[in-house]
Amino acid sequence: MIEFAANPEDILQELAALRAADAPTHGGQVLSYVYDSGLEAVDKLAAAAMLAVQPLNGLDPTTFTSIAAMERDVLGFMRTLLGGDGDVVGTVTSGGTESCMLAVRTARENFKGTGTPRLLAPASVHAAFHKAAHYFGLALDLVPVGADGLADAAAMEAAMGPDTALVVVSAPSYPHAALDPVAAVAAAAQSRGIDCHVDACIGGLVLPFWPGLPSWDLSVPGVTSIAADLHKYGYAPKGISVLLTRGRDRQRSQYFAATSWPGYPVVNPTLLGSKSAAPLAAAWAITKLLGTAGFAGLAASCLRATTALLEAVGQIEGLAVVGNPTGPLFAVAADTSVPAGRRIDPHHWADRLKAHGFTAQLQPAFTQADGSTLPRTTHLTITPVTESRLAELIEAMNQAGDDVRGVPGIEPRQLLDAIEGPMAALLSDGSGALRDSETARLVLAGLGLAGGGLPEAMAPVLALVEALPRPVSEWLLTELLAALVEPAESP
Ligand SMILES: *Cc1c(COP(=O)(O)O)cnc(C)c1O
Asked: What is the pTM of this model?
């Protein structure tokens, strides 16, 4: 007889209290991370499906055959949606990052050249590809994008070489929602025998329903793989994406199989071993519930809301939308065509938007390899629920603009200049000699960032990211996040 250490009711109450401190996941107040269909039936069905498969182990679809059946259905649905034919096969993964990483690893496995294989992508490509190159030992060639955030097909073609293992384009890119020139890049890659991956992690379940787009999916010759996240515009709980690959042999190199140990034969298409079937069951159920027409209807709602918001931003003096966003996401920057006194710094604006009830995502200014700089922006991801709250959101956007119009953005340089003494030396130190955890804590405390939880205003934090050498900001942010989950001191 086991004596429990606590009451289930008390534990759940404690969890509810913890959850109460979370940002709201529903209702459209958080304009990133969460994708709210606005349909209660979708969430209810997903929860029931997850419960139904709770004890399964996704490691072995021969023992738990429901997993293979659900994967076949989901992959079939996505293959049709993304223009694939019978030569296209796929895998369900744990999310966009895993799909990106597997696409890169597979290309590395198939790489026929000599020397270090190279991954070629526009600078706007998702950081998951930096992670993939880092994990799997590829050199990363980032080609500068235009001021509109679009990949430059000619520059990408010029950068293709015998060492290029994979070329990546986005449909659309996360930072600016730029729909890269997929056909031109894929054709150039194909003529050189290089694989071309389309990152449709965020666009894969909305762009098929977006009007007036050039082809960007598996129907484009030369596209050898594509990924789409069901835990974004598939409205499934986190933990599911699909990676579709043209050609069985190409895709088979994605698998890891091992019979060279005394345990059970291991055959893994993905990075994980034992894994939950819950996100798969939820996504499977949602695709059955919504069907293509349901996703089309939700995409249409996103389109109406996004169109209205783009128009609203256009009418806020001092702000400008970056480029021509394709899909239900966009970035706004300061409008440099109006006098400085009328401009709106997008980061101050985001901080004020939060005060008015909506959380948008701050993106730092970014200097590219050719020295050109993409301005700091604020990113908004629009989901179907937004349409029901448009008036409130537009009102908040206007008020936030009025709050900070003419207030200069924080100059990264000034921020660093205001820091003196040994701190300043640490922050500008490129050598990395003093980059240990203890020092990071002192620096973070000195910057007023050690207390845990998010600071009141994010603009100064992003300005710091812009100001610091990249290895320094990466070191400090690592400490900040690592410290968050350190267990409390034992008494
Ligand atoms: C979200 C996203 C990813 C990474 O996906 P995760 O699910 O967060 O791991 C990759 N590429 C793009 C374009 C994305 O939007």
From this structure: 0.96
